Amino acid sequence: MASVSDIGIDLGTSNILIYMKGKGIVLREPTVVAIDRDTRSILAFGEEAKRMIGRTPSNILAIRPLRDGMISDFELVNFMLKGFVMKVVGKRMFARPRAVLSVPTEVNEMEKRSLISTMFDAGMRRTQLFNRSLAAALGAGLPMDEAFGTMIVDISAGVSDIAVLSYGKVIVKKCAQTGGDRFDDAIIRHLRRKHNLLIGERTAEELKINIGSAIPRTEQLYMEVTGRNLITGLPKTMRITSDDITEAIDEPLQQLIESIHGVLEHTPAELAADIFEFGILLSGGGAEMFGLCEAIADALKVPCSCADDPQNNVVMGCGRALENMQELGQYLDDGRKRSMGR
């Protein structure tokens, strides 16, 4: 059983990460739940449920209850969140730790109140919410107490949170409906259209991670994938090139670039000048795609770089707030007031 300690949580569309004060990241699991379609009973969640995707009978469904930055099934999210938290902190009889929770951008106020209530049921004394863009910026090491404009683009599975920050505040923001899932969907459509090959979501994600590229690679990469031939209906193995993936993801890539451009257009002149000097910082799991920084910089004529350890930026930001609550607590949303309805 873990020792009593405060925790920071990044509740993402595809993964949940939990940071424990004084210990660092102690949990990383997929936000997937397996349910029995007939009885609605929950069979598994996390890594165990993810292994079931595409491999279960028709009555068992492995789903992600968060999609496109929103909660699609709140009951499942509550069950899953409570299970992960109790897995980390254990059952506490006396002491109740504090939690800092970063949630998807499109979660509404009612859902936030319910999540805070779920955290209380899981043993938390108090839960405060942390804006994803601010958490990512803090985790990436951006200055939080300077009147200087910075832009951070947090690319998650469901959406991309684009924000211009100054003095610890979000000045301009946009939640673009272009995340890692859109790139996966584009790869599936492209292979079906070009090669008459039908592949699943997991295979598309592996292609994106292993050979994906936002710009043509100097040295071509290859990957053997097996899918279903749409003409014969039989299994088929093909060699897919990195150029195939570059071609496939061009449409969602351009949509992401247009969204960033739109935020820049609405940014005050002085802050925009700072961004043109400092550049755009990419965060989130999607930021690691080969050539993405170069593609954005070339299209917008603005320097662009990827944060160190981008997948962990949000949860590390929550963790840093926990470790230095006296100085950084001002950036947190007071969940106590929300839960009391004031």
Estimated helix fraction? 25-40%
Poorly predicted spans: 337-342
CATH superfamily placement of the largest domain? ATPase, nucleotide binding domain
In percent, how much strand structure appears in the residues? 25-35%
Rg, rounded, reads 21 Å
Number of helices: 13
- Shape verdict: flat
Mean pLDDT: 89
Seen as an oligomer or otherwise, the chain set is single chain
Count of individual beta strands: 18
Number of domains: 2
Distance between the termini: 36 Å
Helix-and-strand structural type: alpha+beta
Let me know the largest β-sheet. Answer: 5 strands, mixed
What would the CATH topology of the largest domain be? Nucleotidyltransferase, domain 5
CATH class of the largest domain: Alpha Beta
Strand order of the largest sheet: 3-2-1-9-10
Describe this structure in words.
The protein has 342 residues and is of the alpha+beta class. It has two domains: 7-133 and 313-339, Nucleotidyltransferase, domain 5, CATH 3.30.420; 143-306, ATPase, nucleotide binding domain (Nucleotidyltransferase, domain 5), CATH 3.30.420.40. It contains 13 helices and 18 strands. It has helices at 47-50, 74-89, 109-121, 132-140, 180-195, 201-211, 242-248, 250-265, 269-278, 292-300, 313-323, 325-328, 335-339; strands spanning 7-11, 15-20, 24-30, 33-36, 42-45, 60-63, 66-67, 70-71, 98-102, 126-129, 150-155, 160-166, 169-176, 197-198, 222-229, 235-241, 280-283, 304-306. The chain has a five-stranded mixed beta sheet, with helices on both faces. A five-stranded mixed beta sheet has the order 13-12-11-17-18, with helices on both faces. A three-stranded antiparallel beta sheet has the order 5-4-6. Strand 17, helix 10 (292-300) and strand 18 form a beta-alpha-beta unit. Helix 2 (74-89) runs parallel beside helix 3 and helix 4 (132-140) crosses helix 11. It is flat, with a radius of gyration of 21 Å. The model is unreliable at 337-342 (pLDDT under 50).
